[in-house]
Amino acid sequence: MSRPSNAETAGSNTPDHTTCPNCNFVLPYTTKTTDPARRLPFDCMSLVLQQLDIVDILRCERLNQTWRDFVQTWIHAVGLHLHFPDAPEIEQEPVKDKDGGNDNRTAEGKRRDENKRIADEKGRAVKLFKDTAALLSGKPTAVRTFQASSAQVALAGNCIAWFVDRKIYWKDLSRGDKGSLQRAREFRPRYYQDEVEERIPVRLWISDEGDYILVRTQSPTGHCITDHLFHPWNGKEIWYHEHSSSESMQIPLVFGEHRIYYFDSWRDGKKDSQKCIATRETETLRDSQRYRHKIRDVISPLVPEETFRRHLDFQSISRRYIGVIHARQTGDETFLAVGLKGTLATGDPAATGGILLVTLTRGNDNEKKVQEIQVDMPAETHAYIQVSASTRREFALITHDVEPVRTVTIRKFRPDADGKFEQRGIPTVIQWPGNNEPSTWLAIDPFKLLFARSNIMNGLDIGSFTLAAPDAAQSSQPAASETGATEKEDEKEVKRRFGLSKPVTLPPKDTSIRSRRRPYRFLPDQAMQYEHAVHFVDPGRIIVEIDCAAYGKHRYTYRILDFGKIK
């Protein structure tokens, strides 16, 4: 809208208003300063916010109450699907009356519940924006540093545990003292019997909610291995289980909502097999009971033993090959593992990969569903999964070159109404403009489309990917439906939003991969010789893992960066 000068408006024939060319909204001329959020219609203000990034949008939200209400409404109505096109819908619990029958609410009750549902959706959308903006601001609100004598560090929720010189420590990260790591609590796993011998901790695991810690210890001779399950908050040992050398090698892998999943490898004649064991985590269990339940389906070569071994290696905090999906309404759990199939290990380009999913029904361990998802993976491909921390019902498969990273592909999977997992939408393909950096220097949040890249000279760089706008050649092509071809519903949705009918390719570095602020320095000057890895830990937390081998033995240094609300 153009506004004439005071001299032009001095005459009596000068119009006293102007018209917006976008929506024909009549805006009167005035010499007073007017808040545009109070005068302009929603469509005009929406055009303004669409040109801003997430950090600037949240700055507008803090101007005053009028802007706050408008920005939050815009985020819920427009911004969520504009910046997060694959944002999951909120899972609503079915509404029933007190007797458990059908919905017998009054009209007023239904209206009240609908308003509550909208408020919940808006609150989650705004929280997603604020968490993302806090990361993109590049300003950590708390930085915690500690060292461990091995790579055995477990982090989940606000609980972290680690080893130092054969001692186990844990810490509640929600109780930081101005960003420092307060004095940690020491664990001393031991037998229930009176004959207690010194135990050596070798591995540890932590549940997703941070309410259980599983510690594996071994005797000084190495012939006896024992698992201990603890409540970290009160130090109580719930149960322990001893594994003798004559038994099969059982490796804890991941916590579920109601189970602990093990990898079991044993020799049956001359053939090695792998199975998954689920251990119930209830406080009533004792070692005298057979608490192990075996999933009787032998894991096929789709997930070989190397997948489980690799899951336990250094740099596995976020690069996981195994995960658990939990359905809130039914209580079912799905164990999933990504692996290689065919002859990929020999470098055969025709080899592929896949995902194995085993769904266990709550209350009936004998009822299970097994699903295999085939994924094309060329040779020299690194593939790992991430389970959404917000919903726990979807997961993403991230694949990229081993060294160096050139192309990153993100595929997202969600269950349908029957519980079968299907790929949602088309893969997001990122042409990464790296400079021969190792893959461990790059961390990707597949659900927010964020990246954290370590640079030894400049520090930690945090940024976001932007979806490429369709060029003239793509937008001029007829849609597949116009040519008579059939499309899947997810492809139609992507085409409707982005005007594309093929995987989304992101623009080059100068337009999409950029940090707003100076990178955060996290490595010492001599750190070029150190191996390190960067991990996203939802929500709003990044951990940097540094292998300082210069000390003569592996001494791992960890930096935990928390990003709160932007100031």
What does this entry look like structurally?
The protein has 567 residues and is an alpha+beta fold. It has a domain at 17-92 and 106-136: Monooxygenase. 17% of the residues lie in helices and 36% in strands. The chain is built from nine helices and 30 strands. The strands form eight sheets. The chain has a five-stranded mixed β-sheet. A four-stranded antiparallel β-sheet has the order 3-30-29-28, with no helix packed on it. A four-stranded antiparallel β-sheet has the order 4-5-6-7, with no helix packed on it. The chain is globular and about 85 Å long. The two termini are 33 Å apart.
Spatial gap, N to C terminus: 33 Å
Shape: globular
Assembly of the depicted chains: single chain
How much of the sequence lies in strands comes to 35-45%
Strand order, biggest sheet?
A: 20-21-22-23-27
Report the CATH C-level class of one domain: Mainly Alpha
Q: Classify the helix fraction into a percent range.
A: 10-25%
Low-confidence stretches: 1-12, 92-102, 177-182, 189-197, 280-304, 342-348, 468-519, 523-529
CATH topology of one domain: Monooxygenase
Number of strands: 30
Radius of gyration over alpha carbons?
A: 27 Å
Largest sheet: 5 strands, mixed
Compute the average pLDDT: 66
Q: What is the correct CATH architecture of one domain? A: Up-down Bundle
Number of distinct helices: 9
Structural class: alpha+beta
InterPro entries: F-box-like_dom_sf, F-box_dom
Protein name: F-box domain-containing protein
Pfam families: F-box (PF00646)
